[in-house]
Write a structure and sequence with these properties.
It comes from Pseudoxanthomonas kaohsiungensis. The chain has 147 residues and is of the alpha+beta class. It is built from four helices and three strands, in the order αβββααα. Among the domains are: 38 residues, no CATH class; 44 residues. A three-stranded antiparallel beta sheet has the order 2-1-3, with no helix packed on it. Strand 1 and strand 2 form a beta hairpin.
Length: 147
């Protein structure tokens, strides 16, 4: 074997990750403090629990596919919450009728529509919404959900 080939093989083997044995995890308690560590508990700490931590294995393809599907569904829901038109929907909103948009809808339909409108508006406000914002939208839902 040539010297440079041997060196290349040794360098390649040096870069390969080595497998390690499973580690133990110790739950150490001292008063109100809890610590999780890989070393045994120190003096003055009580070992409350010990278990073996398994080795990490990357997710298989079926699990990755399920994650991708969930992410796509989440993106679709976000798109709908933001009020952007989706497939088969026009971007225009229906105009309200004189009875507040309730004509032809049951009280359950009005209630669900009010909840969806509230959730969409709160989503658009994001984390900067105030209690006043919440109360205003909850009052509209309560009004729509009256029997």
């Amino acid at each position: 074997m040539r010297p440079h080939a041997r060196r290349a093989i040794l360098l390649t083997l040096g870069w390969l990750p080595f497998t390690t044995e499973a580690q133990q995890v110790f739950k150490c308690v001292a008063g109100n403090e809890i610590a999780y560590q890989s070393a045994p508990c120190a003096a003055g700490q009580a070992t409350e629990k010990t278990w073996q931590h398994g080795t990490y294995a990357p997710p298989d393809e079926s699990h990755l596919q399920r994650i991708r599907q969930m992410e796509a569904a989440s993106r679709q829901r976000d798109k709908e919450w933001r009020g952007s038109p989706g497939p088969g929907r026009s971007g225009s909103r229906r105009s309200r009728t004189s009875d507040g948009g309730a004509s032809g809808k049951s009280s359950i339909g009005r209630c669900e529509a009010a909840k969806a409108r509230r959730d969409r508006e709160l989503y658009q406000l994001g984390p900067w919404r105030t209690i006043k914002d919440l109360r205003k939208r909850d009052a509209a839902v309560a009004e729509a959900c009256k029997p």
